[in-house]
Amino acid sequence: MTRQPASSPAPDSAPGIEELQEQERRLVFDRFTHDDAWALGTLLVELARERRAPVAVDIHRAGQQLFHAALPGSTPDNDAWIARKRRVVERYGCASYLVGARFRAKGTTFEESSRLDPDTYAAHGGSFPITVRDVGVIGAVTVSGLPQVEDHRLVVEALEKFLDR
């Protein structure tokens, strides 16, 4: 499996922990149905196509895959990355990029300090919790194929557009 560089510090333009936490507080659903998964997934595919981004997109809710698309240029490795990033969201209840940022803020990395198998978990940007108001985290929306900050930003952009409708 190909590795994405994660040990290096995030670039200056990368969101900080406070911004990541604010995104999670703000990007909350009142409900999340199968139709919502289709609409959000389709929006993500449209955004990725506009950028000619070679990504795979995945939406899971309560252990069920509700949406998946693999765009030109994506590979089976992207699906493996999606699963690893999604498991971080499921375990920690927050964005995979935020989990990695918290480890980096402590002067370490997720791989060095989490005691979790890096072949099963990846605290890299691109997976964001689907949180329903008064319920909590029920799933994850995940993108893989770009550098981790760009994967994260693409998901956040789609969530912002979807929730502003």
UniProtKB/TrEMBL annotation:
Q: Which domain of life is it from?
A: Bacteria
- Where is coiled-coil annotated? none
**Which Pfam family name is an example for this entry?**
HbpS-like
Q: Which PANTHER family match?
A: PTHR28255, UPF0303 PROTEIN YBR137W
Q: Would you identify the family this protein belongs to, as annotated? A: Belongs to the UPF0303 family.
For this entry, the protein name equals UPF0303 protein H1R13_00670
